[in-house]
Design a protein that fits this description.
Length: 49
């Protein structure tokens, strides 16, 4: 069971890394106000927890 949980945690961390890198690239394109997507992803992670 713990192995399964660890794998899920790794998957979640990968998702977070992907999301942050995606947001960083988006903000690089759109400038510093890429906050709407960030708020959306933050609320999504709060819900998934």
């Amino acid at each position: 069971p713990s192995e399964k949980r660890r794998r899920n945690q790794e998957k979640h961390l990968n998702l977070i890394v992907l999301a942050t890198s995606f947001l960083r690239s988006r903000s690089r394109i759109e400038g510093p106000n890429g906050s709407p997507q960030h708020r959306c992803i933050a609320s999504y992670h709060a819900r998934s927890r």
